[in-house]
Amino acid sequence: MSKQHLLTPYHKNTNLSNKIVMAPMTRSRADNKGHVPTDHLHGLYYEQRASAGLIITEGSQVSANAVGYIHTAGIYTDAQVEGWKKVTKRVHDKGGKIFIQLWHVGRMSHPDFHNGELPLSASAINPNAQSYTPEGFKDTVTPKEMTLEDIKTTVKDFKNAAVNAVKAGFDGVEIHSSNGYLFHQFFNNTSNKRTDEYGGSIENNTRFFFEVLDAMKEVIPQEKIGARFNPSLNGLFGMTMDEQTIPTFEYIIKKLNDYNLAYVHLSEPFTDVSKIPFAVTEIAKHFRPLYNGTLMINSAFDQEKGNKVIEEGLADLVAYGKPYISNPDLVERFENNLELATWDKDTFYTTGAKGYTDYPKASK
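and the corresponding structure tokens:
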């Protein structure tokens, strides 16, 4: 392969040795009472992948109210912070950079996670999906519409999570404002029917996100904050696009030019949206002209497509998800144009080392 743009350094805000990013992926390995990341599993898993220009961890819940999947590691207790310290040290000892993804699933949860209480969301609308509980998959319920006090509390939770991320040694944080979770539930008219200052208009639907961002930058430098969005998400977790969907994300991305973020992380469509009149089929191409900062793109990129999107100037960084599960040495495989190992989807969300830390590096 001719020049690989993916393998060149990137030095805007965060000094990265290459432009290959390990995308955030839920892996459900914190199977302990305190939802604490462990040295022997989480630490080894991320250390093995430290040659990435940047690692973004699995989503880490910012409070007990934020959880919606079994065995996910949080960032709201002292024990969790201590656990993450061991992870970041192992990555840094290998010369890597690591951000933590801060997560609140909103209505994509179940009362089983909340002592029988309802999960929270923008409005009391059931996504009619399923939540992965300790007793297996269960149908979601109609959530509680967040009160103004609930919103204020959640802003504080994200701010506190940013403080904890600094304590844990992370190089930065990513706000998970994507894929049908809490912030996305405020952005989208199918899940947000509010009539107060948090609903009804684009400015109102995005207010909560920007309040969180503004609170977080009080405790962590803006250039250490990233944010993830999925503008053309349709059909997942009850999210449906309408004529306001893309203008909402255009408003967000343009407004983020007023900040000095580490990056904006966008996903190409997860499904075929070519027949949806409101959708954008080429996310990087559409949003690149709107954003002056670092743009990261993901979803179904291989080595060739990753190099091409950077060469064409449509993105600065490319995030890889599933290929990083089975290829801890993804950077080295790209460098040497080696074949990639295939992943075992049956072990994505199981516990233990199998399908997590037992994928070997390539033999040259």
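(Above: one complete record from the training split.) The radius of gyration is 19 Å.
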